[in-house]
């Protein structure tokens, strides 16, 4: 078989090595436009797991790579004049130039033809059974085959520049430097005993204000040496094609077309803050070698091999890209974490990719995990030692308080907005979650017509009482957008709350006819007007039933999403009437609630329109939402896919947030609370091991 690689970076060279190593008869040529020693960048980092794969794939190059390693265990965070060190992480890395030297020499020794200074400009220049496009992040091959490969390049807003420095860092070092122009972040790590990588990142407005927009490479270095004079302490920054760039996240619908296949950065990128680009490129090469020539029985059908390579690699790459996305968003919004205590900031940074759980932090750095647990517990007045785990802590908002941070929104039967009725199944599902230790239980999304009768309100009130008696608060989630028509609950459709009230129990609950809209003064009439009659009646009945929390969910109905802020204002007037508000609850003859109830709004994430989603959430907060409930469709590749948005809303808008936990495990939920990404996590059943403090 003839294999031609366009690009002599880690991906192309390593594929050549592996193919020749397992099948010397195959012919491999690598075309590289640069000279052997021309490379940009400084150090690359590897994890232990990757090294294990490299050791099996080619022990010779693995031995040479590891012999060159700089190794370190710690992460150091410098912010606001304080330095915090976290231990037990374990990294190793080497100079990119050294890595390429090793791979080039090994490729040559195995008979790979590496043609340096040979730029391929068209696919017609290459004749081979398989053409491997490993031409890096700016791959022109990917662009040339765009109709088949469906590439998507997401150019991120932050500016970054990759430099070296002579500081012999002994830890993965993050510098957060506040300047009059804004905040700079530095990712610095050693690559040999007297040299370190020094990547500077900042927001575009900071970059412009600091004068980098028109700066030459030398001016960039000089300006940065000035900004980091204290940290560099006389050491110099080193340039190497150190041009300010924006990170492009590359994704492709397909990685192969005909006999052409994408490998490494050409197919996908993952933000440098998780240090995985080279690892992915080399692991791609292992998988492609296996599928092309590594199968028992010899070579296989090429299109089938390329499809098998993609099928094998895609899930892992997408999971890593999801982690990288969460990580890059953390660095894009670092400003919002700067008011955190150092221990919280460290924890948040450490868990930013959402792949490091609380249990994992506790294993690597028990001191950090315990420190953040103590801080969180102290904030709610708990001083026991050891402190409770983060999800076991109470959460207070106004005068109401949950007994744990876990909210359970169970589903039962065929429950959906249109069909949920407050029957025995509802009692078992919600009451069972409360008994199991949830701090809050929430109904599935109800259509307003599911609370259209007094009989339904009375039935719900019994469930609410049952849940309260088991120490949990209870919320009702109402659809505000278009839903399928709900069947009216069967019995007592003509009974008024007054008639049904004979059966209702609970302190201060009397029943009465519904309030009329006229009871709102002119100042509030407009807000209440957006609430449909059905929703209005449902909210009133929910008040009667004793729910603590009203969650308004517009679903994906654009009209309902737009109306949500006004709907919050209106719903609050009906729902959260307190003495002093002009809502005439007296006309309902229901005693004025003295404890304000919470009103929450659901925000569905749209990662591609994140700024608009954040703007919408800000409107909801201004309209008076006490809590924002963040949900995300996710694509199965991220743990807690709603967490990045939840984190942003909580720390940017300073609003209480609950986040859909999907089927996340308890240690991930603990990490979400401990890192300050959410106040409450919502799951559909109590996770194993969860408890109340
Ligand atoms: C700031 C920063 C920090 C990073 N840190 C890390 C890290 O810590 N760890 C890590 O693993 N990765 C890191 N990376 C990513 C890493 O550099 C890449 O992911 C990795 O090099 C990908 O390997 P590749 O072979 O696919 O592409 P590349 O290394 O980009 O190689 C592509 C090669 O193709 C050649 N080429 C392009 N077009 C042609 C053509 N038409 N004809 C011939 N040759 C061509 C190029 O000259 C180049 O040599 C970082 C990246 C950045 C930007």
- Number of separate helices: 24
Termini separation:
64 Å
SSE class:
alpha/beta
Q: Using DSSP, what is the number of strands? A: 27
Shape: globular
CATH class wording of the largest domain: Alpha Beta
**Estimated share of beta-strand residues:** 15-25%
Give the fraction of residues assigned to helices. 25-40%
Poorly predicted spans = 484-516, 578-593
**Averaged pLDDT:** 89
Largest sheet: 8 strands, mixed
The name of the CATH superfamily of the largest domain reads FAD/NAD(P)-binding domain
Ligand types: flavin-adenine dinucleotide
**What's the CATH topology name of the largest domain?**
FAD/NAD(P)-binding domain
Write down the Rg. Answer: 29 Å
What is the architecture of the largest domain at the second tier of CATH?
Answer: 3-Layer(bba) Sandwich
Give the tally of structural domains.
Answer: 2
Please give the oligomerization state of what you see.
single chain
Outline the structure in words.
It is a single chain. Helix content is 38%, strand content 21%. It is an alpha/beta fold. It folds into two domains: 2-331, FAD/NAD(P)-binding domain, CATH 3.50.50; 356-482 and 499-683, Alpha-Beta Barrel (TIM Barrel). The strands form five sheets. Strands 5, 6, 10, 11, 12, 13, 14 and 15 form an eight-stranded mixed beta sheet that branches. An eight-stranded parallel beta barrel has the order 20-21-22-23-24-25-26-27, surrounded by seven helices. Strands 8-2-1-9-17-16 form a six-stranded mixed beta sheet. A hairpin with a 2-residue loop joins strand 5 and strand 6. Helix 18 (522-529) crosses helix 20. Bound molecules: flavin-adenine dinucleotide (FAD). Flavin-adenine dinucleotide binds next to helix 1, strand 3 and helix 10.
